[in-house]
């Protein structure tokens, strides 16, 4: 038994030990496998897994960069950024969201509708996501909130920044910003990285044209999140890059006085430096409050703006198309003289109308002007005289001159909403209307009616180019943009000092100038006739003249017909104020100032203002005074800027 | 047969028993225990909350239990093996009847102090029973059909009971432990070949009984990227945590994956992931070495123990212990499907800790009484 037992034990032990050895070898293999896997994960692929862990761990949210500023010529902000006070709530940290909303409702006077909307928003989002209760709180609301903050757990007053416009005077030129729409995202590639809560983009005016450069580049907030996406702590911040600041050529003072002058009327004013093309004033009326759009305009306000008869959203200075009316007579006369079709001394008798091929063409003065030469015809704006000039000149030659002076084309590159207008000629009519030109249409065109359409900025440029002696200038609205024709003033100053040399050594081409004339005498004739119209008795804008030499201007009125007068109206001498507003003539006035040494050109349009002399010229008069008063300051600023550059 | 009457039985004084302890093994266990307390502390977010506190208390209590078990004569454990096994089977049956249900499975018995998981104890019970069984029968009988019947039944009954809880992971571990002992005892390769052939034939039948989540776990293991937010999420996040730990780790309490809750089940099955993220390759190697050392010491005790029961038990337990570690680590390293197998000593769980300390206690008892022949 014992021997069996011990042999049994021995044989069992033998088997067990042998098999255990095999098993241990197997274990060693498994151990090496596990060890190898560990090494591969933690040594070979460690970097890969570290980046994966960081991807798990960090979330980044972009921060809206501060938008670039738009300044006037003197550095005063037209559009800048301002602190705004917002209220955010984080449902997660509120003990009872309904109670919180109820409290907020009474503190901020929120409507039931707003509360309902908020509840909907909160339900849609994760409980730790921020919901913005109020975009733009007043200071008093904000301080009231802070007072009650201890009982508003979960609510968070936040100071943020948003676009701010200082007044409405430059609303059209500067434009406005608003939230990014789905369409913007589709059409504007540069928004790809900028679709961030709080970024507003330019929709009109300079805000739109300079949008890409003014947006800047976004910053980011990096924070740690847990597996459920809840923020644990903030890790890093980068405030981003502020957008570019732009200085314009506009003068806030001119903008203000122009806005004031256009009060209660619908119209536009443009003021331009005649030598370098700087637009120092560009105002359209009525205006709107661009601040309303920053946080999204409300429905009622939007409807009010869109349905307004006077189209406040339209920048009439560059997008308003009106027949130029009698202001075109300056170019009709110039064209006739340049083409040698008329002698300025030729006399024509105005008996109130003229007949051509059985059609009767009326002068605005029923009784007629009597016998006139070209100077008097311009001064008194006789239509009959210019019918005759136009007839002799022909539409194609007139249109050539008009185009040369900037009509019928976009003249600024900064406004996508700018309109080109129309300068008709025979070819144009054939291409666009498909009919042959009638001689009668030439007559209408000669006094700026018919197919002619132009914008206030075009007529301002036209006047400026007449005033500077007939040289082409390139208008600009951004002050730091390179000006291609910046030595015109030097040339003119030089010729003034050395009058004999003009025709010999000093060819305008040497100054990189583009003269728009064949004979400068013709330009001077037109300028002189404009002087007469403003400063001689019987002139159309004589009543609005300045006697003081420094403010004395030379101008041309215009009234562009909306609807042809009926015979009955003509017989009764119906006054403009007696007919329906929308059928009244548009009133124009273009001028340059001062007469002795012209510096600025101005164009004024008053929609349905009646006559240019009564509606537009007085407005121009007000603005001109300010423009001259600001001249010295502007020169000083200009010199300072030049000094800075050197 | 009473051990007290055995003439060869040499009663030790307590002092002698202390001399007979295997201190390498003891210190390895103690060190692992200390590491486990730190790991649990970290998994609770760096504080002593319910989990980490009760784990620390359990380790202390069960460490003394381990010493107590080791001081009891090995013959006692041999004699009462069958009884312990039967008791555990009865407990498994009781689980079916009065068990506590949690997350879709019924594994626990409420003992008021804590919930006992008999399937964990069965891991030791099966080793005890089979060691005792093969100790008793003669080596010539091992491969006789009559003598194969009991072990087969003793294996299948607890296996089926645990599978039906359902707890596939534990059931497989019990099965493997049993097979290992049977094989060590000398059962022929041929028989295992027949049985595995049979089980392959039966596999489709078994699979049809699997719960959907068990099926999906196996599928996910085969291709974890197929469902990155579902079942594959655990494997992916575990690999990210371990891999991002790198050579030196992110530092104690600095494991971002664990802290920010990307890591699932970080108290229990994925405790090694947490440790590995914080202590890196070096710390993980140290831990693997400790487990290796423990396995090695147990095997060594088996080789110096005279009795067949002691040998079989130590070898069996060493292998089972190794398998638990290997399965858990392979699982979190993405080498095996997530089956729900805790890491011995490190994972949170009272029953698992109890079973391991009990098992290790018997090993230590083998060491103390290594010269004892059990007739």
Features:
heterodimer; A: 646 residues; alpha+beta; Penicillin-binding protein 2a (Domain 2); Beta-lactamase; 2 domains; five-stranded mixed beta sheet; five-stranded antiparallel beta sheet; 25 helices; 19 strands; 17% strand; B: 375 residues; mainly alpha; three-stranded antiparallel beta sheet; 69% helix; 3% strand; disordered N terminus
Write down the domain tally of chain A: 2
Q: Please tally the helical runs of chain A, counting DSSP H or I stretches of 4 or more residues.
A: 25
For the termini of chain B, the CA-CA separation is: 8 Å
Distance between the termini of chain A: 121 Å
| Known CATH architecture of the largest domain in chain A | 3-Layer(aba) Sandwich
Name the CATH class of the largest domain in chain A.
Alpha Beta
Along the chain, the helix and strand elements of chain B come as HHHHEEEHHHHHHHHHH
Largest interface comes to: A-B, 41 and 49 residues
Outline the biggest β-sheet of chain B: 3 strands, antiparallel
The geometry of chain B reads as globular
Write down the overall geometry of chain A: elongated
Instruction: Estimate the strand proportion of chain A.
Output: 15-25%
**What is the overall number of helices of chain B?**
14
Main beta sheet of chain A, described?
5 strands, mixed
Notes on the protein architecture:
- The complex is a heterodimer of chains A (646) and B (375).
- Chain A is α+β, with helices and mostly antiparallel strands and 646 residues long.
- Chain A has two domains: 61-247, Penicillin-binding protein 2a (Domain 2) (Alpha-Beta Complex); 252-300 and 313-645, Beta-lactamase (3-Layer(aba) Sandwich), CATH 3.40.710.10.
- Chain A contains 25 helices and 19 strands.
- In chain A, the strands form six sheets. In chain A, strands 2, 3, 4, 5 and 10 form a five-stranded mixed beta sheet that branches. A five-stranded antiparallel beta sheet of chain A has the order 12-11-19-18-17, with helices on both faces. A three-stranded antiparallel beta sheet of chain A has the order 1-8-9.
- In chain A, helix 10 runs antiparallel to helix 24 and helix 14 (329-338) runs antiparallel to helix 22.
- Chain B has 375 residues and is an all-alpha fold.
- Chain B has one domain (18-368).
- Helices cover 69% and strands 3% of the residues of chain B.
- Chain B is globular.
- Classes of the chains: A alpha+beta (646), B mainly alpha (375).
- At the A-B interface, helix 1 and helix 2 of A face helix 7, helix 10, helix 11, helix 12 and helix 13 of B.
């Amino acid at each position: 038994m014992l021997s069996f037992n011990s042999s049994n034990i021995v044989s069992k032990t033998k088997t067990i030990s042998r098999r255990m050895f095999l098993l241990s070898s197997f274990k060693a293999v498994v151990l090496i496998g596990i060890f190898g896997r560990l090494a591969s994960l933690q040594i070979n692929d460690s970097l890969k897994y570290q980046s994966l862990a960081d991807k798990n761990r960090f979330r980044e949210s972009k921060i809206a960069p501060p938008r670039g500023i738009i300044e006037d010529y003197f550095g005063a902000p037209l559009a800048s950024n301002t602190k705004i006070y917002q209220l955010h709530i984080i449902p997660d940290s509120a003990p009872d969201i309904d109670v919180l909303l109820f409290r907020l409702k009474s503190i901020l006077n929120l409507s039931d509708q707003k509360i309902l909307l908020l509840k909907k928003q909160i339900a849609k989002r994760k409980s730790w996501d921020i919901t913005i209760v109020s975009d733009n709180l007043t200071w008093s609301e904000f301080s009231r909130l802070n007072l009650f903050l201890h009982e508003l757990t979960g609510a968070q007053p936040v100071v943020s920044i948003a676009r701010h416009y200082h007044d409405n005077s430059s609303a059209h030129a500067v434009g406005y910003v608003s939230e990014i729409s789905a369409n913007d995202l589709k059409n504007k590639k540069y928004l790809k990285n900028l679709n961030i809560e709080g970024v507003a983009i330019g929709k009109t005016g300079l805000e739109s044209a300079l949008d890409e450069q003014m947006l800047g580049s976004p910053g980011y907030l990096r924070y740690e999140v847990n597996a459920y996406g809840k923020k644990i702590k903030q890790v890093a911040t980068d405030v981003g890059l502020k957008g570019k600041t732009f200085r314009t050529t506009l003068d806030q003072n001119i903008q203000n006085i122009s806005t004031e002058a256009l009060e209660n009327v619908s119209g536009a004013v443009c003021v331009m430096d005649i030598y370098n093309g700087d637009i120092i004033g560009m105002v359209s009326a009525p205006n709107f409050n661009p601040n309303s759009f920053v946080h999204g305009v409300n429905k009622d306000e939007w409807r009010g703006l869109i349905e307004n008869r006077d189209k406040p959203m339209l920048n009439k200075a560059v997008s308003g198309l009106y027949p130029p009316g009698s202001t075109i007579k300056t170019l009709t006369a110039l064209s006739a003289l340049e083409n040698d079709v008329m002698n300025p001394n030729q006399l024509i008798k105005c008996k109130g109308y003229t007949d051509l091929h059985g059609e009767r063409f009326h002068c605005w003065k029923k009784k007629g002007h009597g016998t006139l030469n070209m100077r008097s015809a311009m001064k008194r704006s006789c239509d009959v005289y210019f019918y005759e000039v136009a007839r002799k000149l022909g539409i194609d030659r007139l249109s050539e001159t008009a185009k040369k002076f900037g009509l019928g084309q976009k003249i600024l590159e900064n406004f996508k909403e700018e309109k080109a207008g129309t300068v008709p000629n025979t070819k144009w009519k054939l291409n666009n209307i498909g009919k042959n030109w009638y001689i009668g249409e030439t007559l209408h065109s000669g006094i700026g009616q018919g197919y002619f359409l132009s914008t206030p900025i075009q007529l301002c440029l036209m006047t400026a180019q007449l005033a500077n002696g007939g040289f082409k200038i390139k208008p600009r609205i951004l002050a730091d943009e390179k000006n291609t024709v910046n030595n015109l003033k030097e040339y003119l100053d030089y010729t003034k000092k050395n009058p004999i040399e003009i025709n010999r050594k000093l060819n305008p081409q040497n100054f990189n100038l583009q003269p728009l004339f064949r004979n400068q005498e013709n330009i001077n004739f037109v300028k002189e006739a404009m002087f007469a119209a403003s400063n001689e008795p019987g002139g159309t804008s004589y009543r609005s003249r300045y006697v003081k030499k420094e403010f004395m201007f030379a101008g041309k009125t215009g009234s562009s017909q909306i609807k042809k007068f009926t015979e009955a109206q003509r017989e009764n001498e119906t006054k403009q104020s007696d007919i329906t507003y929308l059928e009244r003539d548009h009133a124009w006035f273009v001028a340059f100032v001062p007469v002795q040494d012209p510096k600025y050109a101005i164009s004024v349009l008053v929609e349905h203002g009646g006559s240019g002399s009564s509606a537009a010229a007085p407005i121009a008069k007000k603005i001109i005074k300010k423009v001259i008063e600001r001249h010295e300051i502007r020169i000083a600023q200009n010199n300072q800027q030049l000094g800075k550059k050197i | 047969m009473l051990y007290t009457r055995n003439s060869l039985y040499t009663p030790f004084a307590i002092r002698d028993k202390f001399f007979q302890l295997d201190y390498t093994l003891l210190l390895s266990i103690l060190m692992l225990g200390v590491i486990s307390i730190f790991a649990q502390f970290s998994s609770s977010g760096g504080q002593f909350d319910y989990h980490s506190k009760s784990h620390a208390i359990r380790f202390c209590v069960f460490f003394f239990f381990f010493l107590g078990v080791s001081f009891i004569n090995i013959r006692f454990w041999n004699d009462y093996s069958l009884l312990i096994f039967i008791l555990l089977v009865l407990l498994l049956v009781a689980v079916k009847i009065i068990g506590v249900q949690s997350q879709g499975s019924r594994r626990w018995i409420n003992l008021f102090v804590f919930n006992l998981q008999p399937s964990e104890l069965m891991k030791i019970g099966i080793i005890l029973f089979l060691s005792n069984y093969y100790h008793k029968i003669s080596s010539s009988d091992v491969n006789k059909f009559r003598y194969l019947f009991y072990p087969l039944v003793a294996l299948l009954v607890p296996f089926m009971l645990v599978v039906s809880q359902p707890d596939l992971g534990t059931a497989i571990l019990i099965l493997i432990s049993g097979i290992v002992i049977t094989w060590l005892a000398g059962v022929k390769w041929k028989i295992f070949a027949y049985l595995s052939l049979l089980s392959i034939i039966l596999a489709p039948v078994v699979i049809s009984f699997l719960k959907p989540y068990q099926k999906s776990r196996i599928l996910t293991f085969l291709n974890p990227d197929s469902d990155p937010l579902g079942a594959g999420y655990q494997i992916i996040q575990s690999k990210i945590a371990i891999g991002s730990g790198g050579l030196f780790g992110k530092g104690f309490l600095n494991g971002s994956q664990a802290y920010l809750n990307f890591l699932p089940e970080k108290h229990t099955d994925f405790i090694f992931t947490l440790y590995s993220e914080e202590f890196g390759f070096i710390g993980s190697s140290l831990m693997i070495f400790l487990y290796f050392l423990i396995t090695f010491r147990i095997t060594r005790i088996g080789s110096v123990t005279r009795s067949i029961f002691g040998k079989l038990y130590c070898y069996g337990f060493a292998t089972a212990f190794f398998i638990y570690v290997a399965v858990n680590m392979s699982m979190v390293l993405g080498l095996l499907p997530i089956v729900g197998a805790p890491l011995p000593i490190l994972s949170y769980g009272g029953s698992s800790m109890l079973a391991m300390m009990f098992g290790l206690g018997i090993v230590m008892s083998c060491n103390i009484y290594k010269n004892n022949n059990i007739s």
